[in-house]
Amino acid sequence: MNGGLQQGAEGQADGRQKMRFLLLYALAWAGCAIAYVPFLTVLLPLRVTDMAGSADVRVLGYLTFGGAIFASVANIAFGWLSDRTANRRIWVAVGMAGTITLLLAVPMARTAPMLLGLLLVWQIFLNMMMAPLSAWAGDCVPDRQKGLLGGLMAFAPAAGAVTSAFITTPGLAGPDGRLWLVAGIVAICVLPVLIVGRPEPFPELMDDDLGGPAEAVDSAKPVKRMWAARLAVQISEAALFAYLLYWFRSIDADMTDADIARIFGFVLAAAVPLALLSGRWADRAGRPILPLAVTAFLGSVGLLGMALAQGLEFALAGYVLFGLATTVFLSLHSSQTLRVLPRARHRGRDLGFFNLTNTVPSLVMPWLTIAIVPAFGYPTLMAILAGLTFIACLLLASTSRALRR
């Protein structure tokens, strides 16, 4: 298979995908995170502040809201197009080229409307790269390696955070130079899988036979549970990502943004080996969903600890537990989702609908926080998020029993 959907000979004799391709794929997935994490969390806010001054929060809000909507639609559209054209590789390549080009064009946006237009088109190309790349793994990574795949995908968030820290090193590069650094790193990460990635074909992964209507209904149940569970966890994760500094300062006024960045970086780095170990165990034990249920439970315990925290030490312990658990959860969930999607010929499109669990929380979370925190405080917010995450645990526990082999 050369990045498309057409399958030829059987895979390797042991029924596993080549480790070389898995590593190249994980590198490309990390490149996707590098394409958006430094830009959306550091470079874009700084540029908006320089451009809009005191109106930066309002302008950034418009940019974030519009970007989330365009990302949602584009991910579904390009997943579907890569299904229809039976080729993932070409869409990833064009999306990468457009993403890099528009990053380098950011300095040309002199006004907020120009920057908004550029950001929306950039979101289209970013999702043109990410949606087919996500579906490509479903085409060529067998179920027995999906846990390993999820563990390798855990490198992506850490790579995005490390790149953000690297490009903002004092004296390394100016605002425009940082964009060039990001663009170059993205190309270095994504190009290898496009140029030399030659995965072994697995024709069984392209089977589309669901049997009769009863089988189709049964297959839809784990899909819906997986979707709802990820949405619940992502709402909690999005709330913490946006308001973590404010929450820590409500407990200890001396906490700084640098302190939060170090804690966040530690969590992302420590989650990588945990995700790899959990994924390998899931593959070997034949319990693909159980680690998801366990990490969702641990995430809810961490949030409950945060709700009850009275001092900084307890608060830090609760957040570290939550951060580690949800980082592992999201990485493994991304790969195990490929296991439950019912129709190979709609894999890219269906993954686009799963991607709504990443973008919808950005639209829901601000209103949830505004409605709760001023009236009831952060402990109530944390308790509600703990309840949401525990619901995800229950959904996944029932799915684990259904899929146990």
Largest sheet: none
Count the DSSP helices: 13
Protein structure class: mainly alpha
State the helical fraction.
over 70%
The whole-number mean of residue pLDDT values reads 87
| Rg | 21 Å
Uncertain regions spanning at least 5 consecutive residues: 211-217
Please state the second-level CATH architecture of the largest domain: Up-down Bundle
Number of strands: 0
The name CATH uses for the topology of the largest domain is Growth Hormone, Chain: A
Pattern of helices and strands: HHHHHHHHHHHHH
What portion of the residues fall into strands of 2 or more residues? under 5%
| CATH H level, superfamily name of the largest domain | MFS general substrate transporter like domains
Assembly state here?
Answer: single chain
In one word, what is the shape?
Answer: globular
Describe this structure in words.
By secondary structure, the chain is mostly helical. The chain has two domains: 188 residues, Up-down Bundle (Growth Hormone, Chain: A), CATH 1.20.1250.20; 191 residues, MFS general substrate transporter like domains (Growth Hormone, Chain: A). Helices cover 80% and strands 0% of the residues. The protein is built from 13 helices and no strands. α4 crosses α12, α5 packs across α11 and α6 packs antiparallel against α9. The longest helix has 39 residues. 47% of the residues are buried. About 2% of the residues have low confidence.
